[in-house]
Hints:
Helix content is 23%, strand content 28%. The protein is globular, with a radius of gyration of 22 Å. Residues 44-48 have low confidence and may be disordered. The protein has helices at 13-24, 50-64, 74-90, 97-116, 163-167, 178-187, 209-213, 245-252; strands at residues 4-8, 28-35, 68-72, 121-123, 128-134, 140-146, 169-170, 222-226, 263-268, 291-297, 302-307, 315-322, 326-328, 340-346, 354-360, 364-374, 381-386, 389-395. With 398 residues, the chain is α/β, with parallel strands linked by helices. It folds into two domains: 4-213, Rossmann fold, CATH 3.40.50.620; 315-395, Translation factors (Elongation Factor Tu (Ef-tu), domain 3, Beta Barrel). Strands 5, 6, 12, 13, 14, 15, 16, 17 and 18 form a nine-stranded antiparallel beta sheet that branches.
Amino acid sequence: MQKRVVVGLSGGVDSSVTAYLLQQEGYEVIGLFMKNWHDGSVTIQGDCPWIDDSNDALLVAQKLGIPFQTLDLSSEYKQRIVDYMFAEYEAGRTPNPDVLCNREIKFDIFLKHALALGADYVATGHYCRKRVSTDEHGNPRYHLLAGKDGNKDQSYFLCQLNQAQLAKALFPIGELLKPEVRAIAKAQNLVTAEKKDSQGLCFIGKVRLPDFLQQQLQSKKGEVILIDNNSLSPTSKYTFDNCTTTQYQQLAEAFRFKKGDGKIIGEHNGAHFYTIGQRKGIKIGGFKEPLFVIQTDTKENLLFLGEGEHNKGLNRAGLFIKKEEVHFIREDLKLKAGENGIYTARIRYRQPLEKCCLYQTEDGLYVIFENLQKGIAPGQFCAWYQDDELIGSGVIAY
């Protein structure tokens, strides 16, 4: 019997080729465009207008001769993604809406809608791969692997998926390089063949982030404080894969700056508008090296800066993830309290994987890196891998 798959047609070349490849493999393909945002007041027009994307998705569906639907998820998107973003920024954390969009929209609401249409699978144009094995009881086990194209690998954005979601997911272009995808689209005369890749927030596009945040977060003048690098204690010497409990707690602990710890050098419009590691938008000059945000205090409305990208306040050996935020895609590899393991990890998209050691405690998970990491930001996701397989992830607490 022919298997049915619903493809999330975004109006881009990747999802277009995804639909074509599945059709060639003999699937019954349905194209579905998700309308998640239609507020042009903060969107930079021309970068990702949803009307143009919807029209391109429709043209691709017509070219391939497949059914096409538009699904309005703007209400759900606002509730699950946009409101969450506002709350996180207001609390001084840096959310990743693309990771959440995949967990909450594409592989939850969209997946459920597809199943209601009788679909056996959903498919997206992500550059990642899925492999299936069997466990000791003969049950299927699903593996999420990095895409073949190292420059486009998007497995990080899927780091919060679970086994049930992966069971229903297909990623046809994961074995291809980006130029190969464009060549296929061009050979099939798809309207998206030469279309520029979208930038910015998932299904929103490129936004003016200050304008976006100021829809709900009010400007509030506060002090900018420069922390003298020489006043910070250096990271203690350690062997990252042979730490004691006390050592990895100390290595993961972030500096806790307070008013009086440094020199007041200016004023800002709201600590919640800034993120750790930020360099642009500070608008304070006169220093030998660039200034970077090393901490925000949204309760006291204070912004702490450090000079130079190698300052000790910006570069840390580790991080901590609360117990309830620790997520293992490979549930069979989940660490118990007192256990540890060597992995590679990244704390942002497209960052090279860094060797690290995971330490699971009763309270949560410590991730200690072999090399110091720049700009570890609460609210972001840390994802860990074994070779090219994504094993798990979690929201950084500090």
